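pls ignore typos typing on phone
alpha-D-glucopyranuronic acid + seq
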Amino acid sequence: MTGDPREVAPIGEHPMWLPDAATAHLRGRTVAVRGAGRLLETVRGEASRAGMVFEEAGGDGADLVIEATTDAATAPEGFEVSRAGGATRVRATTDSGALYGWFHVVRLGATAFDDTLPTARHEPQHAMRMLDHWDNVDVHPVMGQVERGYAGGSIFFADGRLRDDLSRVERYARLLASIGINRVGLNNVNVHAREARLLTDGLGIVARLADVYRPWGIRVHLSASFAAPITVGGLATADPLDPDVIEWWADAAARVYREIPDFGGFVVKADSEGQPGPFAYGRDHADGANVLARALAPHDGIVHWRAFVYNHRQDWRDRSTDRARAAYDHFTPLDGRFHENVVLQVKHGPMDFQVREPVSPVIPAMRETAVALELQVTQEYTGQQRHAVYLAPWWREILDFPPFGDGGPSLAETVRGGIVAVSNVGDDPFWTGHPLAQANLYAYGRLAWDAGLDPGAILDEWIALTFGDDEDVRRGIRSVLDDSWLTYEAYTAPLGVGFMVTPGSHYGPSVDGYEYSPWGTYHFADRDGVGVDRTVAAGTGFAGQYPSPWRETYESLETVPDELLLFFHHVPYEHVLRNGKTVIQHIYDTHIDGADAVDRKVAEWDELEGRVPADVFARGRDLLAEQQRSAREWRDHVCTYFWRKSGVPDAGDRVIP
Ligand code: GCU
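k done
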């Protein structure tokens, strides 16, 4: 964005949404930064980087006054921005609030110095705004270095150890601070042998990363293996009620805090997809979580205990077991038994980050337990950063969902333990593989701060910071991204049924790929119909896990929303949707229209040639070509599959291969 966008910038590394031009409106203006706290040093560093001139002695005449003072009376991390007497003021109670206020001024652009700038208070909705990395120190033989990572290797680790040069991690920390992220999980939830030792002899690595994040107000967390007392501690058991195990965890936590006094805590995936857990000892997940929680409690640490627990060795012939039910069945009997520094981390849907799922019923059910909502910024099931899919409209829908019915609190208001998401970043020059996937990371941070923000406005903000204020660029990127989630949904698995992806990689169509597998993800298509009967009356009973009115809404074919029809019901192909179309015709139409929509996106992106930097344009063009190929593949697999199963021809008489 600096200079002529047609020049091919040497892509060492793209600046994401903080190119130098994003602070051009600050250059040459005067600034005063007042108050105490190490993060104010960071603010000063930012102001000087932006080319601002520091005012000495009080600085009351400065263009921008940033102040951390207890008089500000903002919530922790919050700030107030106002304009009076020719000065823009940011006042915050804490230095972290001042840092967030600084980045707010960056986002405002030139309007930050408009005399019409209204006074506004900004306070985060959630104290915990976390990003989890699924990075391994070593390269895993199947999953690579970053599990479900689509942007290259880890920015932390290379050659089986911490990178010597952590300057990129520092730039990352700055980017995260600018969108309000304050916690980072450093390693994969599937903890392999090498990574388990981060807790012991690898602690120096964690300490060095914590040092890099600290000036940006970010605390680090580690994924810990439940079997660590055995695998790294040399004990004979990891039984959470065994006194030696209890002592081992207490010592391990104490050691961590001696090195890293502001360490955040542990993230644990237990008894899930082969990870060890308390079930091996006949204990439940409250016993398991609490042993770690007690070890962390004296140090103000937190256990993020994941609710993603289900039987991944299911017999596909067994129609009574329903993976969607599993988290609720495991965890709701334990409500009230978790130590107060346990946060139950729940994926937004009951299955696994599919493009369309109902909201997890575990979230409203856990009344006595702090719950964190887990989202996936990495696009495992939404095109793997080869497809341009802007996820914020979907997240906003999830965050707005009223789990107890209209008029009740939203999901964002229901979760007390904060918001967590899996990062989409790697060592790719664009950080996120697809340059447009940067918008998802940006939007995640902004929505974790304030779930009421408008996804379109967030996108405009990201576009302006990243590409400047060329209206054609804004319009072009908006037309590629605005409806992109719904477009992706249209050409992939229909009406909430989910999966239909290639087993293992999870990329591209394979309609029956998981149908006869042990993973519990089935669509049950036969010659007459498709979908999973999860009703109480005749199916697995999953619909009954919701509080009213949702249990009734989902139970009945009369009221279930069309987009979730096949998640809750098995229906004949001729079942008529609310829009008057049959299910089979809907499948044909959405897949053909969805692939056509991608053709239009290719053309829309082509219009941006010469308007966005050449490297961004070229990467986007290559990836849109792949998205186009893949969307057609999806269209043809799904249409042909259902044509062959049902024998019902397309009413539009189009060629279905
Ligand atoms: C998905 C994903 C795994 C991941 C798991 C999890 O199943 O495919 O790679 O480990 O989610 O969230 O734990």
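Residues 614-646 form the longest helix (33 residues). The longest strand covers residues 370-376. more later
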